[in-house]
Amino acid sequence: MTKRAMIIGGGIAGPVTAMALRQAGIDSDVYEAYDRGADGVGAFLTLAVNGLEALRLLGLHDLVCELGVDTPRMEMSNGRGRLLASFRQPGRTLKRADLYRALRDEAVRRGVRVHYGKRLTDAETTADGVRAVFADGSTAEGDLLVGADGLRSRTRTLIDPGAPRARHVGLLNTGGFARGVTVPGRPGTNHFIFGRRCFFGYLVHPDGEVWWFANPPSRREPTPEELAAITPAQWRARLVELFRDDAGPMLDIIGATEHILPGWNTYDFPTVPKWSGGRMVIIGDAAHATSPSSGQGASMAIEDAVVLARCLRDVPGTRDAFAAFERLRRTRVERVVAQGRRNGSGKAPGPFGALFRDLTLPLFVRQMDRRNALAWMHDHRISWDDRVTATSG
Ligand SMILES: Cc1cc2nc3c(=O)[nH]c(=O)nc-3n(C[C@H](O)[C@H](O)[C@H](O)COP(=O)(O)OP(=O)(O)OC[C@H]3O[C@@H](n4cnc5c(N)ncnc54)[C@H](O)[C@@H]3O)c2cc1C
Q: How far is the CA of 289 from the centre of ligand 1 (A)?
């Protein structure tokens, strides 16, 4: 192995990049801010088929598909119980903690070194590489640094101190896992309900557990302290109030959930002007977070990882490789972010907007389905063998 990369962040982009770089002949270390014990945090997400196919290039497809449940269908209803749309959209839905754990364990099995409790605070260029500084006072050196450190990326601000802040999309998130409740729907269908006052999503796992989330609208961005101050009982009461007048299994599901997850804000990043500087680059949410409504954030992180590894494998010179990576990725990921924004706008539309949505959505979805209008998103395939050049784009 010739080069050595330091990867900041052990979420999705981090370990996948480490494995992709290894496949490209580049050694790497992953530095994760939290201790291993933090793996249990979070809800679930759906990996779209394009993300799953990108994992296949690294021999990770089967590993990931041992987790979670296939979710090939989506159904959308309104708060009066009317089915608005039902369509195919293949994907695999997994608990976030299971996905993180599986990717990190596999990276370690393949020889990647993962260091926990290492929060990047600073980085400086040396004569022939980069030195990373961590909150515990330790340092590390490598030939290049990949910031896979998510929405609040420290690497992003080290590359560009004037980098924009993430945009709050006007929705909160909470959710949980319910047991012992019978709800409509078969395993394999993601059910989405546009309640009168709040959006709700759920799926039934084959073992009977119901996985769910809700997006209470919030015009204002609550501070982390304000969110942390809301007790589980208050979340429960608030959700019950929000879904009080809606048709659907929401109240049963919430009632059958022992632990309601503490709420969190939802953001996206329409554009981050600088993705790289010197020997540092950002990928995944650090470079282009999309609202969860796109269902593509994790898949974009995985695609980034594969493309970045190909660029570093093929393009001589780190800076030119980073430039090629940005040329190959920027247009696609910003289009996904814009799509996520559009998808999310129907979740809290007000009474007239809701009426318009209920009238137009069935037609719109049928047309989209017929024209295969999202093929650009889901049918995108990356080739591992095609060579990247300094002018690819
Ligand atoms: C509610 C919700 C639902 C979602 N649903 C979906 C979905 O259905 N489908 C989908 O594809 N995507 C979904 N997403 C988006 C998806 O989770 C992200 O796009 C994806 O996790 C991005 O991966 P990442 O590795 O870039 O960032 P992350 O997964 O956020 O990982 C970043 C890692 O970096 C670490 N870190 C942060 N700062 C530092 C530091 N200074 N030093 C060291 N380590 C650091 C963090 O602890 C973390 O482990 C959803 C997101 C949310 C919030």
A: 9
Q: Which residues pair with 120 in a beta bridge?
A: 134
Residue with CA nearest ligand 1 atom 21? 298
Rounded Cα gap, residues 12 and 26, in angstroms: 19
The number of angstroms, rounded, from the C-alpha of 297 to the middle of its chain's C-alpha atoms is 3
**Using alpha carbons only, what angle is made at residue 28 by residues 27 and 32, rounded to the nearest 5 degrees?**
170
Task: Kindly state if the Cβ of 239 falls inside 6 Å of ligand 1.
Answer: no
Distance from residue 17's CA to the centre of ligand 1 (Å): 14
Helix H, strand E, coil C: the string for 59-74 is: CCHHHHHCCCEECCEE
Q: Please work out whether the CB of residue 299 comes within 6 Å of at least one atom of ligand 1.
A: yes
Beta carbons within 8 Å of 155's beta carbon, 6+ residues apart: 8, 120, 123, 145, 146, 147, 149, 280, 282, 286
Measured between alpha carbons, how far is 369 from 380 in angstroms, rounded to an integer? Answer: 17
| Residue 199 and residue 347 in contact, taking contact as beta carbons nearer than 8 Å | yes
How many other β-carbons are positioned within 10 Å of the β-carbon of residue 354?
Answer: 18
Ligand 1 atom index nearest CA of 31: 43
Residues of the chain with pLDDT under 70: 1-2, 37-41
pTM over 0.90: yes
**Residue with the two structure tokens 């002018």:** 391
- Whose structure tokens read 């709800």? 183
**Edge-first strand listing for the sheet containing 210-215:** 83-88, 73-78, 189-194, 199-204, 210-215, 167-178, 264-268
Cα separation, 102 vs 109, whole angstroms: 10
What pLDDT, on a 0 to 100 scale, did the predictor assign at position 37?
59
Rounded (10°) angle between helices 96-109 and 13-23: 30
Largest CA distance in the chain: 65
The CB density around residue 325, as the number of other CB atoms within 10 Å, is 26
Total number of residues shown for the chain? 393
Give burial (CB, 10 Å; 0-12/13-18/19+) of 379.
exposed
- Nearest-Å Rg of the Cα atoms of the chain is 21
Task: Provide the pLDDT for residue 348.
Answer: 72
